[in-house]
Amino acid sequence: MQMLRAEMRGERYSKTEHRRGLAPQLDDRSDGSIEFKHANISAALVHLGCPYIDGYKPRGNYQRLLLDGIEGYLTKHPGLLEELWQSPLFDSPVQEPRVANWDGLFVDPPEPRPLPADAKPWTMRRLRKVDFVRRDAENRRLGELGERLVVLAERQRLQQAGRDDLAERVEWVAHDWGDGAGFDVLSFDARDESERMIEVKTTRLGQCFPFYLTSNEVRCSEANADHYRLYRVFQFDKRPRIFVVEGALTAKLQLEPTTFRAVV
Questions:
Q1: Cross-strand partners of 245
Q2: Are 92 and 175 in a shared domain?
Q3: For residues 200 and 224, is the Cβ–Cβ distance under 8 A?
Q4: What is the DSSP-derived secondary structure letter of residue 223?
Q5: Residue finishing a domain among 99, 122, 149
Q6: Beta-bridge partners for 231
Q7: Per-residue pLDDT tens listing for the chain (264 residues)
Q8: How many structural domains comprise the chain?
């Protein structure tokens, strides 16, 4: 949590020094074992909808006891979530990044990290007052700049494939039509000219940070599975990169219902 505070404030810290300080308290466990446990902590924080340390890529297969430990820590340190909530990564103005290498923009998606079968993260009392995922989603400037980045990336991709004609036809649907289409950008496959219906989700945080989807977006992905793409833009302020999820989102993502519309 000390390292997470520093990262969210944009301060420097040393993972190596932290690990060396921990080792004597952990019966001199190996460096690899300590690193793996920190990656487990990142996975637990992801499932709780909290920021995590980017240098510790989330790794699943952790026990529910880890979630209990995090809840205990948050209970003893009630101001931590509010401190993270007000950190620069959430609270400072979003700046449009400069992309020096368009070829390095796209990366592989992360591996799935299933939640422990007996875990009930929604019961954690300390998380009821904050919703980091929703705050990320409601940052309109962040969302618009992420969509703009994808529009530019798609035009660049098509131009590099020698399809200037298709690059000129790329449309910023959410900007020109509105948000109700179920996707944000209309692009094309450079080989067969088929449409790509791209939904963009942008975060200033890491690759594995959760995000919200609307029911309209999910239904659109199911109805247009052969053409639908989700572009997850992450680390937007630092070095933006994108991973792509293709097809129906219900088949590719772990979807957890958060809100239902009720009719009496």
A1: 230
A2: no
A3: no
A4: H
A5: 99
A6: 200, 244
A7: 999 999 999 899 999 999 998 888 988 789 999 999 999 999 988 888 889 998 899 987 888 888 888 888 888 888 898 899 999 888 889 988 888 888 889 999 988 776 665 555 555 555 657 888 888 889 999 999 999 999 999 999 999 999 999 999 999 999 998 888 999 999 999 999 999 999 999 999 999 999 999 999 999 999 999 999 999 999 998 889 999 999 999 999 988 877 777 778
A8: 2
